[in-house]
Amino acid sequence: MGAVARVTDRAPASRVDHLIRIIRSDFKEMPGMRLTRVQFRRLWNLGEAECEVIVQDLLGEQYLAESRDGRLCRRVDCL
What we know:
It is built from 4 helices and 2 strands. It is mainly alpha-helical.
């Protein structure tokens, strides 16, 4: 039911899903990576709105967490 429940004002589900897979893989390959939202956008060449949708998806899935200093990291690396 994934694509149906998604927000309609974002990139097509296939692109977002593809980016999420890439981002998950990159975080897994680089344990301890901690990025600001600006760094996150630059690393994967995302627009501001697209970045926020992807970040919210990954936070909602509890794959990513936001550290006390506002950086995004894998949930297991932020603890």
